[in-house]
Amino acid sequence: MSKSYPIIKGVNRPLEFKGFQAQYIAYLGIGLLLDLALFTCLYFIGMPMLLNAGLCIALIMGIYQKVFILNKTFGQHGLMKQLAAKQIPMALKIRDRQFLKSLRSINETS
Prior knowledge:
Layout: E1 16-17, E2 20-21, H1 23-45, H2 49-74, H3 78-85, H4 97-109
Antiparallel strand pairs: 1-2
Helix pairs in contact: 1-2
């Protein structure tokens, strides 16, 4: 008798929820939690409820739109790659020849 095993079709695919991929789901969740905290603070301060709700709804819509644009523009890993690329220097300035001489001696010995 041969055994049959089920095929799992979601292996090695990025996590996706309503069009958001990977880390963008976390960005959206953090933004919504911060908006909830803002709503709570403004409520305790005594801001009128309609103004408070309108402000927080507008903020939620802005966060959603910004995260959706980032997701669509950069994809799963693109935002992290762009942030990493900004940290790479455009040029290296070496004012001491001793560094270059040490590189030559390392290459000659190997």
